[in-house]
Amino acid sequence: MSQSLTIERDLHFSRYGRGSPRRLEAGPEPKIEVRQPGRVPRIARLLALALRFGAQPREGVLASYSQLAELGHVSRARVSQVMKPLSLAPDIQEAILFLPRTEHGRDPIHLRLLQPIASTPDWRKQRRMWAELLKLRT
Questions:
Q1: What are the φ and ψ backbone dihedral angles of 17, each rounded to 5 degrees?
Q2: 27 lies in a domain?
Q3: pTM, whole model, 2 decimals?
Q4: Which of 3, 52, 76, 132 is deepest in the core (most CB within 10 A)?
């Protein structure tokens, strides 16, 4: 007496690099992420970097910003420039992090334009300066 046995399983082929052999893998085929057009503005990436590096001396990971400059092979002055946007009002920092992607050409807002705003200690004045900058650049 012969019985037929049917096994059902989701399978897909995948590659782990260009030119590598295809492999048969179990499970459904992974969904491909669709990338948004354009790129994240440089100032948003620099602010994210500053936020990450700003916490390291507080947490005791690094002794000081000069140690950060040494590890990053940059000058202490450059580290100060990159860290300066941390003195911006929190809502301005959030607006910078969520700037629209740049699809072509140069970024409309860059670090040099933010330095005078970040040097102002009054957050209300910073917000006015930020609004003027946005009117001019967008």
A1: 175, 165
A2: no
A3: 0.71
A4: 76
Answer whether residue 36 is part of any domain: no
**Residue 38, φ and ψ in degrees, nearest 5:** 90, -170
Tally of CB atoms within 10 A around 130:
20
In a domain, residue 108? The reply is yes
Residue 86 lies in a domain: yes
- Domain holding 82, by residue range, is 42-137
Q: How far is Cα 49 from Cα 23, in angstroms, rounded to an integer?
A: 38
8 Å CB contact between 29 and 43: no
| 100 and 36 Cβ atoms separated by less than 8 Å | no
Nearest alpha-carbon partner for 96 in 104, 105, 106, 107: 107
The torsion angle over the Cα atoms of residues 134, 54, 87 and 96, rounded to 10 degrees, is: 10
Number of domains in the chain: 1
pLDDT digits (tens, 9 = 90+) for 69-94: 998 899 999 999 999 999 999 999 99
